[in-house]
Fold:
Amino acid sequence: MTDYRLASRDNQPEQTVIKFKNCLIGGNNLFIIAGPCAVEEEKMTYELASSLKDMGVDMLRGGVRSGEGPQ
Structure:
């Protein structure tokens, strides 16, 4: 068995598929997640979500903090 026993096909030969609302993640399904590194304005987020949906993106993601500024 490999060093990655839990993820190994030796341990679980069938593909994992997760159902999330009306989407299937995994297996032979293409599931696209997209979004900004930092969510800054509500209006901009809704406009982006609408555009991404029109492009076929399945899920919106967004960071809560940008990489700018002191750390």
